[in-house]
Amino acid sequence: MTSAAQHEANRSNARASTGPRTTAGRAISARNARRHGLNLPVLRDPALADEIAALAREIAGPRAGARRFELACRIAAAQIDLVRVRRARHELFSGNPAAIARLAAFDRYERRALSRRKFAIREFDAATGDNG
Amino acid sequence: MIEAPQLPSSPTNPPPATATTMPWLPPPPLISGENAAAYDDMLARISGTLKPADILEEIWVRDVVDLVWDAFRLRRLKAHLLAAAAHEGMAKLIGPLLDWDFTDQIARRWAVGDEDAVQTVEATLAAAGLTMDAVMARTLGLKIHEIERIDRMAMAAEARRNAILREIERHRASFARTLRRAVEDVEDADFKVVAAQETAREEAA
Q: Is the ipTM reported for this complex over the cut 0.85?
């Protein structure tokens, strides 16, 4: 059991150490728990938005209407997500081929992206058939 | 030096498929020691067979190639894992037959081809009526969890490859239906135009 003096010392010490204070320090500590970032939805990453839009334009074609472009965006987002997972997996594996145990952890992200892409393409194809 | 002629791209002469890439395609999944030319060759052969007709099919073709490559690699790594761990299996196998204090040392020397160690090991195995199969069986027992994990990953890659091939078939069927409907619409329109023209001619006559 802690004495009153120890308790007071603990509180005093805790007040003295309140974590990083600078912007750079806070930015670093904000990533302390980050492992690969694959849980972050791809649409929340502004760096990938241009890639998604470019791919969606390729998929939808030059004279696509709003609905067709929207469906193409869903395919594109899933594809870019898949590329992100595979790139992360490849970086891990090429740096350390013995990391096979950790590779399995990427499986569920890949499975999820593949499933989203499959259903997005089916919907896109169905819409194309309806309009065709 | 004679240079190969540069043929222009056309529908009948498409540019060769390579692993270079658009940002929406993953990097070629090559790791140290793997042959990039072999990967490009596989990509060209599978592209040549599947003949991707649109960007979605191009994406799928890359998926299929990468998954085939992954499955090959995993099976190759499994064989290498067993070979690399053979001295551990050997040590466990000959341990009860020899002085335990020297078993690990003999097994390691056997693994690097030390002649004395090879002779000792062969004599020990022969005396016990064992062969290299017994060594590999013992090694497999030691590495069974890693082997199972690699097998599961290889099977997952193959299952994904098959699922993608089914999606290509479905997509092509859908495209074919759309195309057939478009052709029928065009034919119907032509028929109406011809019929209307014939009716007008008959009335004029």
A: no
